[in-house]
Amino acid sequence: MSLDVGSVAPDFTLKSQHGEDITLSSFRGERNVVLVFFPFAFSGICASELGEIRDNPDVFEGAGAQVLAVSCDHFFANRAFSDRDGYTFPILSDFWPHGEVARAYGTFNDDAGAPNRGTYVIDREGLVRWKVQVGIGDRRDLSDYRTALAELS
User: Does 72 qualify as catalytic in the annotation?
Assistant: First the structure.
């Protein structure tokens, strides 16, 4: 099932790399959310993409957006990954039930047992305003995020 632009973003609560519960709907009325699914902690493309987000906070902060990255790795693995690479945004664990949130967003890859690379820009009202989905081996482009977030203003 694919999630269409204009749909209400499925709500969820997942553990961050620090063991804290993060609920998507807690950002409603306050901030836009950039929800970034990635397949595997410690993998090259994932580290590169998340590093690009880390290194360009102005793209997200200027749009009043909170980045939430999601993998199916356990939150302990996400903590080690985050500590190693200095990520300052929440890295959420969709570990159990395995991939439940990725499935709700239509980005879970059953063959890999992990999400494809899917990004969803969710506005302050909780609506999906933009999305991109690419395969596990493909990169997303930061300039696409910049364009999508500019349209929220």
Answer: no
